[in-house]
């Protein structure tokens, strides 16, 4: 019988049939809505592993069952076929007595979330290393038709050697590139615009948006999209309104902008992100910011903040306004004349966007009063439905500077 090594007490009988005579439980690492993760030791080799137990009896709907089946399918692929240095290894996947057991590589060092919380913000050299490793892992799963859909610092581990390990495919999915997905899941603070507006989407761009939020959080210690209510949060995400701190290098700002691109078709891919100059430049150059930064004065900035068009957080230092919709994924071949033209066009779009006080999470299709009312009601219903889904499927810890 599996026993707790600290107190020698017998643990739940449902664990025994799977791990009898092979593993010894050490301690609980964490608990979730549907089970727990505990640290165990292989009796024969003394190798430590993390065991995730999902109790299917706790599921409340079919969506939760589908997520569990997806995770089981993905973990079996990692157990038998796929391996990557920046993805947690899967040793075993077993089903017994209405529970699913995942035996995983134990990663000492903790979560990226804790690193950000402890340091307040990560310096660009370190953030560059970690982000590159994260995107390498994301590029690998996308190449093998797997989407994560819950990328956040809590699901990114840092081992004792200081290397990134991606984990937790609880919302993962093996996707068909020719088909759209319509399950809206993950953490709302890291969710892409197509998620919060309940728009059918393709998987990889959703992950890349979340990577952009993670990169922003690492470099600033703050979340780019943060509001007190879900409708306000969803609106800012759907419009891609966030603040660009001027303390970051030009290349870092450009990469964040390419990741937090409102249009998923123009959002940078994992493969292209790995080619971005920020991941290869040392020290960073300063030519990109001139191309994407909107010329502004103090009066212009105060006016924009007063209109509440782009104001996110008063805690970030000296913000530079970001438009966040028309994104340039490739810029190396742009001529000086094109750069000037892009600056003027971007500034014009920003001014028009700031004056539009009727921005919604999703645009109404008609301009008459009746259709506007119907559109507003539909928006409220959609926002409330997504809010209920998010509140029932996950838990979020906010990033704050210390």
From TrEMBL:
This is Protein kinase domain-containing protein. GO terms for cellular component: cytoplasm. Residues 364-373 have a biased composition (Basic and acidic residues). Keywords: ATP-binding, Kinase, Nucleotide-binding, Serine/threonine-protein kinase, Transferase. GO terms for biological process: intracellular signal transduction. Pfam families: Pkinase. Belongs to the protein kinase superfamily. It comes from Mucor saturninus. ATP binds at residue 52. Residues 356-376 are annotated as: Disordered. One of its GO terms (molecular function) is protein serine/threonine kinase activity. Residues 23-279 form the Protein kinase domain. Coiled coil: none annotated. InterPro entries: Kinase-like_dom_sf (IPR011009), Prot_kinase_dom (IPR000719), Protein_kinase_ATP_BS (IPR017441), Ser/Thr_kinase_AS (IPR008271).
